[in-house]
Specification:
Blueprint (H helix, E strand, L loop, with lengths): L1 E2 L11 H13 L10 H19 L8 E4 L2 H9 L9 E4 L5 H14 L2 E4 L12 H8 L4 E5 L11 H9 L4 E5 L17 E5 L11 E5 L37 H14 L4 H16 L5 E4 L10 E6 L4 H12 L1 E2 L1 E3 L6 H5 L7 E5 L6 H12 L2
Parallel strand pairs: 1-11, 3-4, 3-5, 5-6, 6-7
Antiparallel strand pairs: 2-8, 7-8, 9-10, 10-13, 12-13
Helix pairs in contact: 1-7, 2-7, 3-4, 8-11
Length: 375
Amino acid sequence: MIYLDNASTTYPKPEELYIELDKINRELAFNSGRGSYRKAREVSILIDEVREKISSMVMANKDNVIFTSSATEALNNIIFGIKWNIGDNVYISPFEHNSLVRPLERIKKLYNINIHIIPFDKKSWNVKDEIFDMFALKNPKYIFLSSKSNVTGYRLPFEKIFELGKKYNSINLLDASQSFGIDKTITKNYIDFIVFAGHKSLYATFGVAGFIKLTNISLDSRSFGGTGSDTLNPNMPDVSPTKYEAGSKNTIGILGLKVSLEWLEKANINDKEKELTKYLYENLLKLSKIIICLPEDKEKISGIISINIDGYISEDVGKILDEEFDICVRTGYHCSPYIHDFLETKKYYGTVRISLGYFNNFSDIDKLIIALKSL
C-alpha cells in the first residue's frame, strides 16, 4: 500500500512510538491525579512534562496547555467558551475546515453574529487589499484562521492578518492542526489560542489533541465533572488546565505524544515535505489532462497538492487508484465548504488530494505518476 493521505492522519508513525505505546499500556496506564500511590504520581509528572514540551514550542506557560480528544473538541471548547454578543464580527478564510465553520454557524444562530470571509486573490492566493476596508468598517472582534489548508497545503499569511486585526483589539485563534511541530516559524506573536492535533503533524495517535491559551482571556468551561482535585467544591475549579479538563485524561495518548515530540526534535519533516512536494509537482506537470490547484508562488505550498483529471470526477480517480494500484488518496470536499468555490472544483465534486508525509519517498510518487498516466 502507498499511503498519500497524511493530511487526514499521518501514517505510519515513528517506530519509537509503536514500541513505547506497548510499554505505556503495560506500565503507565493509570489515572492521573486520581491516586496518591507512586504510579499515579509518576503519570501526573510525565503528563506535566508533555505540557512543558508543547508550551516550549511557542514560549507559553505550561499550565495553559489544555488536552482534548481532538482538534474539533479543542475548537469547540474555545468557540463556545469565549464571550459573544449580538452583532459581533468574526473573520475567517475560505480555506477553513468544518471543525471551525460549523461551531461558528451554531454561534451565529445563537447570537446573530456576522461571519465574514476574508477575500483572497484566485491567482496569487494573496489576501486582497479589501481587508483593510473590511476591518475598518466592521471591526474584527475575532479572527479564526488555519495555519495551513488541509485541501491545498497553502500556508496562510496568518501573521499579517492577525497583526492587522490586533489594531482593532481582535482575539485571534490559529488552527495549527496541519502544521504544529513541523512549521517552526509559528510563534505566539499576535495569537491568543493555538489548536494542535496529535494524530496529524505531531505524528502521534488518535485521541490526543488540545489548545494553548496564550492570553489572559477567560473561557467558560464546556465540560464538567471530576478533576482529581478540589473534590468538595461542586463547581469546576477556576484554574487552568483543570478548569477545562473534566474526566479521566487519555494517559496513553498523552504519554505517546511525548515520544512523538522527542522524535520530532530529530526529524527534519519540513525539509522532507518540501522536497517531496517539489518532486511531485514537477512530475505532475509532465501529465496531460491534469488540473493542479496551486497559487502563482509554488513556495507557499508544502506537503499537500490537490488535483483533478479532465473527464473524471474526483471520487472515481480515488477508487481507481485504490482498487487498481493500492494507492490511498483522499477525494471529495475534504470537510472544507468554502474552498471549492475559490478553487472552482465543484464540477469535479471536489479534488483528489495527495498529502505527503515524512515516511513517503520518491518511489511512492513515481508509482502514483504511473497510475495517473494510465487514466
